[in-house]
Design brief:
The structure holds 2 protein chains of 2 kinds. By secondary structure, chain A is mostly helical. Chain A is built from 9 helices and 2 strands, in the order H-H-H-E-E-H-H-H-H-H-H. Chain A has 2 domains: 189 residues, no CATH class; 68 residues, no CATH class. Chain A has a two-stranded antiparallel sheet. Chain B is 32% helix and 25% strand. The chains are: A mainly alpha, B alpha/beta.
Amino acid sequence: MDRAAFQTFHPVVPTILFVGIIGLSMFGLEPRLVAASLVFALLFALATQGVAAALDKLRWQIPLLILICLINPLFNARGSHLLFRLGPFLVYAESVAYGLVMGALLIAVLMWIENMAYLIGSDELLVMGGGVLPTVSLMVSMTMRLIPQLLSRATTVRTALQATTSARAPQSEKRSRVRVMDALMSWALEDSLERSDAMRARGWGAVAHRTSFEAHPFRMRDLIALALVAGLIVLAVFGVLDIVHGWDFYPSMTGTAPFGAYAPAIVLFAIPLCCIVAEHVWWAVHE
Amino acid sequence: MSNAVEIRDLSFSYPDSASPVLSRANLAIEEGSFAVLCGPTGSGKTTLLRLLKPEITPAGSISGTRLLFDTPAESLDLHDSSINIAFVFQNPENQIVCDTVWHELAFGLENLGMPVDEMRLRVAETCTYLGIGPWFRMRCEELSGGQQQVLALASALTLHPRLLLLDEPTSMLDPVAEKEFLSLLFRANRELGTTVLVATHRPEAYRAYATCAFALEGGAVGPVPLEELIATQRPAEYNGTAAGDRVVNLSDVWFRYRRDGAWVLRGFDFALARGEMRALIGGNASGKSTVLSLIAGMHDPQRGKRMNALAKSQAYLPQNPKALLARESVEEELAEWSSSCGYGEPEIAAALDRIGLADARASHPYDLSGGQQQLLALEKLLLTRPDLLLLDEPTKGLDPARVDVIASELKAARDRGATIVLATHDFAFVKRLATSVTLLFDGQASATLPRDEFFSRSWLLGA
């Protein structure tokens, strides 16, 4: 588990960072930007989750990429460099490139979302929501507890019935599902009565405004990090707008944006990986 | 010393009930006591406790005086009541509200709108005091039942209550977890000065800690000398071993729930003869339930052989009887398998008589107490006349009278020729009814012996 590099920050910092990265990756439809985003997303996944897990995800993403690459030139016969003719279809280099970039963008965004989900669990989300909406955060917390409980009970009910062969009950799939649902509903309702008593016994509704226990206080360091990340995101947004506006796939691929426009976005894409690397270096030095 | 609880001439009856639960009951508990309230299931212990906690007092007609720290219960508002009086319920699973331990501990404090720094102090102190700091970041689901109950106690203690009411707090726990819970409760009582009132049908477990005891019977409360808090011993009802043919055999069975999980069973051997009543004993998570599920065919061994000659006529009682109950009434519940198994109205009526539910035949199964549900689920299985009965903790949380019913039902089933395997922590029940005992440890059968030999050789249980 390599979440540690981020755990020392208040969860709002990595959340804003990843939301920024995902947003920029989504709208930055330009080969160099997409390449940078994809490379850093992949490296981050490799660094945190290991080769096996990262490759496992690519297993279904690569076919997606190939599919988009193939489909775009067939339906979008634009460009200036004719590659070859396939029956009635003219295949241009530009439209192949467009498909490739589009597919890569999609994969990069998916990978960033997965990376974010890996770092930020329900607990971290709750820490962020708790201060503003204590009741909503409590509801989320209760749901997080009750859904797994319901699922495991469904298994218990089903197996208990299947194990009782002496009943010689006709085992129709549909009827047994209805029966499991029935049992689960009454079970859950019954429990909820007891749970609501337990909640009232601990002062539920005693004051109009509940407070929220902060397991992770927001400190100065978090504020500084957040300001840096937010500033970088703003810069990157301007840069990406510049790049995307100045870039054309058709008729031939040309761009007008200077290299400086790329810098903020690329720095942003690199931050998660840098945090992990910095962590490894720290341990290498201190062990 | 003033009284933490004082009840004078308290009567209570539920709206639709003819007989009152309490009639002119009197009770006084000094501040700082550890009081035990005993009485059989259904005697009204829970009702009495709830009458002392205004926000969960049941609806019904109340007369008489209830004083809590010299304040009438009626004039306690929600805020005062939640600060001063804490309540711990029987079922650990149902009283836990949040998904993480830290959130659960803070829940009551959040409800009271307490400032964050005060919450942090209280939560930290409570965790340190009870030694549950290592759980702080865990999910409540990851805790065992005993740990969940300690968490419920901890969540109550963060409120710094002056009075702690507990309703059968250890009846769902195994003996080891029960002792741990009680020692923590005892410390809270002696060291923090919290007054404790605990309702239980198993008062013997509290004998070492209690300072006073009361019995609730026939709607009246009377004092009980502490020396009388002892379990009633039942004589062994079976002797000798069964010598039938082998009906179940597990040989060199290895099993784990997930590919990357730990082995639950590692080279487990088990042979069962027809007509035997085998008790599976062992600590928590020693694999008792797993053995039952493997015999029943709910899981397959990853390695090793399983033979079950009675697989076509087996019945399985899960730990929670609710998993078997899905009908609208007690009667329908028992009738569910009547057509496929060929029994009818007379058998159902006789069964209802045996488990003492003849008056409740039209009730919804969920309106029954936990003990009654347990009997109903067992009876429902027995009506199908299974040849192999697999029972997971059949006596958990039951009072002695209900245990007697279970015992006689199982005896009848065995006389009819059924073979029985029960996983249990209840050694008194094993001593009374089992013919042989298997002790599980580290995924193996450390010993399989005839009952009498097992108890005579056992160092811990021999006495």
